[in-house]
Predict the structure.
Amino acid sequence: MSTTDPKSIRAGQGLSALAHGEAIMASDLSSKVLELMPNGLAVCRMLFEEGIPCDYIHLYTNPAFHAQTGLGPVCGQRITDVIPGIREADPQLFEIYGRVAAGGDPERVELAINALNKRFSIQVFCPQPDHFVVIFDDITQRQQDEVQLRLQALALDQIQDHVTITDLNGVVTYVNRTQVEAALRDSERHCRVLFDNLFAGVVVHGPDTGILFSNPMASQLLGLTSAQLRGVTAMDPAWCFIREDGTRMPVAEYPVHRVAASGVATHQVILGILRSDRKRPTWVQCQAHPILGEQGQIEQIVVIFFEMTERKQTEEIQTFLAQTSSKATDASFFQALARFLAERLDVFYVCIDRLEGDGLNARTLAIWCDGHFEDNVTYALRDTPCGEVVGQQICCFPASVCQRFPLDPVLQELRAESYLGTTLWSHTGQPIGLIAVIGREPLNHRPQAEAILKQVAIRAAGELERLFAEESLRESEQHFRTLANGGETLIWTSGQDKLCDYFNEPWLRFTGRALAQEVGNGWTEGVHPEDFDRCLQTYVTAFDQRQPFSMNYRLRHADGTYRWLRDDGNPRYDSQGDFLGYIGFCVDITEQKAAAEELDRYRQHLEQLVEARTRELILAKDAAETANVAKSAFLANMSHEIRTPLNAITGMTYLLKRAGVTAQQAQRLGTIETAGRHLLEIINAVLDLSKIEAGQFALEEVEVNVPTLIANVASILCEGARAKGLALVIDTQPLPSSLRGDPTRLQQALLNYATNAIKFTETGTVTLRTRVDVDLSDRVLVRFEVQDTGIGIAPAILPKLFSNFEQADNSISRHYGGTGLGLAITKKLAQLMGGEVGVESTPGVGSTFWFTARLNKDPCATTAVPALTDAAEAILLRDYSGRRILLVEDEPINREVAKMLLDDLGMIVEMAEDGAQAVELACRHEYDLILMDMQMPNLDGLEATRRIRQMPDRSLVPILALTANAFADDKARCFAAGMNDFIAKPIDPEALFAALLTWLARSSA
C-alpha cells in the first residue's frame, strides 16, 4: 500500500506518469486535448430493442459539445429524456449511430438535426460493442467560434499496489495495479482512435520543443509524416511560417516557442505554413497550452490547429474586390481582375469577355498573357472552349485542351494544356460574359480554382452590367433631345439641387407656359393644392435616397382644367457613375382614372353577382349531397332487402340438396341455385359500380399469390368449360415473390373475363395467361390475359365495349344473357389498381382480353401458413359438436336456414328475434359464439353488441355479424361496435363454416 493518501481521478479520464513516449500522449493528455479541442465530442452507449436502435446514453461530453449543441449536463441521461421527440424528428441520426454502434464502419456525414435546428458535420466510430464516439462541428453559420479552453489538472502521487478511482457519483473504488494497467491500455487504444479521427491537427512537444506525438491531421496540414515529425524542434529549418501580412515569422514568435519561453498559453494565432510541395501557404489557426508537472515545470506543450486556408482565400478575394475601383475607366476593373486571377491561380493567360448580341461572338474586355495586357479583339465562340462555357456555371478541361479543340488557333499558339471558365450572368439570369483562365500545365487544384472563379464572377457580372448600362445611357444622351420632343410624353429633368432644369415641348404645350416659368420650382405652381404636399414629399424622399418613384397628381392644363398625370422618376448617372439628378416621364391618365372608377363600380356589382351565384351553388351542392346520401341509403336498403330473401332461397336450396333428393329434383335445385348466384352477382356488380363512381370504393393490400389466384379461377370455371367441351389452359410466367395487392378484386376482374370467354366460346380453348410488364425495385406491373377461340368482336364495337351496360351487341343478351357490367367493372378495378384494360379480337377467330395491375413488393413477407387439409365442416362436426350458439335474426326463414346449418354440425342453437332478446339471453347464459344480424326491430345488432361487451365476462365471446348489409362501411361499423368478424348474406355455407371454425378454435385456445 502507498504510504501517502492516493489522489482521486475521474472515471473515463486517462492515467498519467506510467510510462513515456506516445503512451503518455494517449493517456495523460487525452482529457486535456478533449477539453481543448474545438470540435464537439461525445462518448455514448446505444440502447437496442429487438436489434433496432431506440435510445442512447451520454457517457462523456467535452465543453465544445455543450457550446455547439446548447445543451446542459447530459451525462448519464437518455437522449429522449434530454430532447423529447428527437427520435421522431431525426430518425436518420438514430440509423447512423445504431449502424456504427452495432460494429459498422466509421461514417462521416453532414446532417441537419431538426430537434436542435442546426446542421453539423459529423464523424462517428465504434470503440467497442454497443458504443460509439461522435465528433462534430456546428456548420450552421460556417464560422469558427472562439474555442473555450478549460484545463483540469490530473495527478497521481504514485501507482504501487492500489489506486483510488472516484466515479461520477462520488463512489470510491479500490483496484489493483493489474486492473489499472489494463484500463490504461484500453484508454490508450480508444484515445488513439479518437485522435486519428479528429478534424484538428494535434502536436505534442517536449520541454525542448521536440515533437513527441502528432495525429494524422497534423501530418496532412504540415506536409510531413508522423515519423518525419517525431523529434523535430521549433528551431528546425524544416519549418517556415509566415505572418498574416506575408512576412516571415521569427522562431521566437512560434506558438510553441512562446509557450516554452513564458509558460503562458497562446490563443487564436493565425499563421501560414510554407511547404515545398505547394506554391501558396496553408493557413491555420493555432492554440498552444503548457502541461505542467507537480513542481510547476513544463512537461509537454500541446498545440492544436485547424485549417483556415479557404477562409483566408475568401478574405483575400473580398479585400481585392473592396479595394478595386470600378470608376477610373471602363476597362480598369477588368484588367485588375485579370491580373489578380493570373497571380492567384498561377496561370499565364486570363481573358474576360462580353458576349455580343447574337450570342455567337465575344469581345474581350481584358487579356492578360505572360505578364502583360494584350489588345482587345472580337472572336467567334464556335470551336473554342469559351463556346462550351456559355450557359454553364463552371466549365473545366483540366488537361489536353488543345486536343479537345484542334480548330482554336489561339490555344495551339499558346500551347495550352488546361482551361477553366465561368459564365457571367445578368440579374435577369441571361449570360452576358465569361471569364477564362488557361495554363500550360494540367490543373491540379481544380476545386480551389473553381471556388475563386465563382466568388469573383458575381462582382464581374455586376461591373459588366454597369458597363452595358453606361453605354446605353451615353447613347441615350446623344438621342435624348431628338426623342424627348417627340410623342405625347411629358419629360422633365432636375439637377443635384433638386431644382428642375429642363422640360420638353409636350410639357410646355400641356401647361401653356414658357420654359423660364417652369424651371426651378416654377412647375409646382400648376400642381393641384390637394396634391401638392404629397407630391413634394414623394419627390424629396426618393431624391434623398436615390430611389426611383412613381406618383399620381393633378396638374393644371393650358385650358385651365386639372388633369391626372402619372409621373415616373428615376435617378440619372454619368458614364462614371456619378449622380446627376433625376429624370421623369409623365403620362396623362385622366381617361384611365375615369375608366378605373367605372371599372371599380362594375367590379363591385360583379362581386355582388358572384356572391349571389355562390349562394346558389352552395344550395345546389347541398342538394346534390343530399341526393347522393339518399342514393347511398337507397342502394344499401335495396341490397339488404334483396339479400334477405335471397339468403332464404339459397339456404333452403343448399339444405334440400343435403337432405337427399332425386336426380330430377337435384337438377331443378341446381337451376334455382344458379339463378340465385346470378342474381347475387348482379347485385354485387351494381353496388360495386355505384361505389366506384361515388369514390367510396377501397382496395385492400394483403399478400397476393398470383399462381394460386389463377388456380382458383380455373377451378371455378373448369366444370363449365368441361360441360361445353372446352380446353382450359393456364400459361403463367414466373413472378416476383411476396407481392401485395387486393386478391379478391384481381380474381373478380379475371373471373369476369374468363366467364365471358367460356360463355362466348363454343369450341376450342380458353387460356389464362400472366406475365410481367414492368419490374421495378418496389413494385411490379402484372398483365393478366384471357384468350379464347370464340365468336370474336367486330372492330366497330370495340371502342364502346368497356362502357356501362354495353355488350358486343346489345341484342346478343337475348342469346347469351348478361347485364353488360362485367367489363365496365373490370376496367374501373384495373384503373384503381394502377393499370389499364384492352382487347384484341377478330370476328369468327377469337378474342384476347387483358388488364394490368400494380402489385407492391413486400421485402418483409413471411412464409404463409399452409391451409388445413380437412374441410371446415368436418372439423366442426368432429371437434366442436355440442357448442352453444346464440343466433340473433329477426327474419323467421333466415333463422330457420341458419339453425338447420348449425344443427347439422351438432351444435346447440338458441335463437333471439331482436337485439333486446339477445342482450337478455347473453346476460343469463354463456355462449361459445354469437351470430348477430345488424338490422332488427326494437334494438339493432350494433347496439346489442355494445351492451353485451359491457357485461362482465362477455368481452371475449366471439360475435360474428351475419347480415345483408354488405357495404364496406357496414363492415367497419360492425368492427367498431365490437364484433369479431363479418359474414354477408346470402350465406355461403362454406364461408360460414370457415368463420365458425376460426373463432371457436381461438376461443378454445
